[in-house]
Amino acid sequence: MTDHESRVDCDVAIAGGGLVGASLALALAPLGLKVALVEAVAPGGGVHPSFDERTTALANGSARIFRSLGIWRHMEREATPIRRIHVSDQGRFGVARIDAAEQGLEALGYVLPNRVMGAALWQGLAAASGIQVIAPARVLGSELAGDVRVLALEHSATTQQLRARLVVAADGARSLIREQAGIAADHWPYAQTAIIATITTQRFHDYVAYERFTADGPIAVLPLSDGRCGIVWTRPPEDAARLLALPDEAFLAELQAAFGFRLGRLLRAGVRSAYELALSRSERHVAERLAIVGNAAQGLHPIAGQGFNLGLRDAASLAEVLADARAAGSADAGDAGPLKAYADWRAEDRRRIVAFTDGLVRLFGSPLGVLRGLRSVGLLAFDAFPPAKSAMARLSVGAAGRIPRLARGVPLAGDR
Prior knowledge:
Helices cover 33% and strands 30% of the residues. The protein has 416 residues and is of the alpha+beta class.
């Protein structure tokens, strides 16, 4: 090994400072590792709340991760609890309900604006030691060089290189780092488009999250602060384009017809946006001195609100195996042993969640009358069967296989 090869700039270089990448950096901060976080957009200040901000449904396990990272206090004022979940099938008699109180839970989860989570994470990063934030910077790629992986980036109009024991790809579904490492990703389009908007309703949501299945796709209505609701309305692409072009009054009328009057009249809609839905999965979670997290590892249909929660567990799991390796005396964050442990752990969690989510899409997305009848019976059976509700409640707290310590509120080894 040459002196050039042995030089190391950091233990872990994270490509992508979105919600998952930033969470991973913050989780690693107490471990005594030198961490570099490379992000394309500089941390912003003065971003004001707007009516149309994007939101995410957090499982209880995800909320506990943020508590464990010490940043939940920056979020909780704008975190809207989900006290009940109401599932129905348009034109059918089947209805299922899950109540947090019946399951002995304070909430089944929380709904948060993404800007609130991002601001809290950047506050935490600013106060953490051992983390170098490089932003704005564009990641150009990575390659192995002896006992390190070199991350190339463009920052301040110059090309730079970071030599890291471990590079983490947190750079999204079309991950350049993953592709350059030769890790393929499967991609299955659902031929569906999700319309996103914030609405004001006549009746207070009473902290109920609704999932309404229709012949053209599901509608999720999530409770937000100040009595507002966020919607994710899944439609065929050509119809989504038509709905996006409608005036607000006509859009609300069609949404009302599909959703019903459980919240009274729908009074106002914010700016609408849309994105195509697909299931994507990386072939592997790791390569030599490389780990893959978040959307770079998998992208899910939003039907069950599991995508971000699964990605956050990627970050918590990777931090845990690195903490355990460090506690056992390993000084090399890119060692093959911890990476294999991470890959094995994530493969099982992802398998369960993908099977659950994709199964819902295929069952409730089917126009076949016999399946629609069966799922109505299934909803009634679910509503009358307490163990099934308990299983769903456990899923809502992130209980899919082994749960990361951070998601249980247990500090990682080496935490102060």
